[in-house]
Design goal:
Length: 227
């Protein structure tokens, strides 16, 4: 392996399809060379190359699942994912994953702590900042990105149900990204443009989130709770 990114061949997506059929240590051990070279190795190489353009440092997460607190004891995740952290204007990081369904790239605030939610909702309710968020989310969608993230079923406490930006106020997370099917493999330049293009299209949104919300300042153990 030369460490360069060469795209994701059909064998990458075949490996994930095999893992979905047989999520076992036996399958993973028997196909570990393909995982290390083509799956994890391919994603690491792609993120490293993109980090040279966007800045920051790339990290790919482990394939093994944490089984301590879940009744689902399948040992391996059905996707391989990583982030680039330390990118100016995207404090939450730039995210990419591969799975049997293809290649996904996105960014945003995937889970806001209580203090972040307070700042987010105050900014959404503010006429100037909230209107700006409507503009940047619409622009992201016009650029082919989909908005995702958990939302409340009703208005958050203290806000009217008929607020003009109620759909944004209900959000507990806000992510923009897009997916590309992996049928037949994904060529190098196609993958780089898909991922890098998604991140660039989301920059106005991540800039808004960093300006008006920013990272949590709460201790980790008190960030959750009813929201």
């Amino acid at each position: 392996m030369d460490g360069a990114f060469h795209g994701f061949g059909p064998q990458v997506f075949e490996w994930f399809a095999g893992l979905e059929r047989d999520n076992s240590k036996a399958y993973f051990t028997a196909t570990r060379d393909r995982y290390e070279a083509d799956v994890r190795g391919g994603l690491e190489s792609m993120l490293d190359e993109l980090a040279a353009s966007f800045g920051g440092e790339a990290r790919v997460f482990r394939q093994q699942r944490d089984l301590r607190f879940t009744p689902d004891k399948t040992p391996y995740k059905d996707r391989t994912y990583g982030v680039i952290r330390g990118v100016p204007g995207a404090s939450a990081g730039l995210y990419a994953q591969i799975s049997s369904r293809g290649l996904y790239a996105g960014t945003g605030y995937w889970q806001m702590a209580r203090d972040q939610l307070e700042r987010f909702r105050a900014a959404v309710a503010d006429d100037a900042a909230g209107s700006q968020l409507e503009v940047v989310t619409t622009a992201a969608q016009d650029a082919g990105l989909e908005l995702a993230g958990q939302s409340l079923r009703t208005a958050p406490r203290g806000y009217p149900r008929d607020h003009p930006r109620i759909e944004l106020l209900r959000r507990k997370a806000l992510i923009a990204g897009r997916a590309l099917a992996g049928t037949g493999g994904i060529a190098r330049e196609v993958a780089l443009e898909h991922v890098g293009g998604a991140w660039r299209a989301a920059q106005p949104l991540t800039g808004w989130l960093d300006e008006h919300v920013g990272p949590s300042t709460l201790p980790r153990e008190v960030r959750g709770g009813r929201r």
